Amino acid sequence: MVRSTARRSWLAALALLAASTAGAAPGGDRRNADVAAARQSIERAEFEKALGALDRAEAAGGLARTDVVQVLELRALVDLALGRRKDADDVLTTLATVDPNHRFAPETSPDLVTAFESARRRAPVPLEIAVTHEARASTLSLRARATRDALHLVKELQLGYRRNDQPWRWVAGGALDVSLRPSDRIEYAARAEGAAGVLSETPVQRFMAPAEPAERSRPFPWLYVGVGAAAVAGIVAGVLLLGSGSQRTQPTAPTLEAR
Q: Which domain holds residue 109?
């Protein structure tokens, strides 16, 4: 009788947790049919069926980070319900590495919370990625790397950027060169992809390209014309003055008076 009551309490906690995770995740998670099917199976205590749905969700890949975290939580929950403590501990160790400050819903089974705290104490340092930039004359070079990945969870690094509030563009790999134009505002970030989806993301950083230097103001063309005309007039006047001066100083022939 006691075991039956405990099982009913455990199943009730599972159902509450499945319902709470369904409302806690963003829209991308609610649209994932396999994750939704796993929750429904958990509510009906169909744990093997729930594991199958979670396997499909992970195999499909491309999950957002919140989706990945929810899949790990649900998988650990099912493993504990099936008495697979070692499997649950491995999953919770991964969860502690990916999301060390993970918070469970208030109605979560105490067994799951206790198992997570134990896994967090045993887990290696949390997963961490870093992104740096180097600006050249007309290029912004972005570089990303996984600085901490003790469990070797990262399968691929991706770099993303957007220019002046345009849509984001993501490129696989840890290196990306972005062309720069004067006054460009570049926002960039990096993320680490695991087998199922995004494991970690860096905060968005910003870079402002310098403005194009102002050109020196040039005099208007008519000014050059006026200066040229004045110079020509000065030369002509000088020639005329020299000519009139030479006429005044030219010697004249002497004259003889008649006696």
A: 2-122
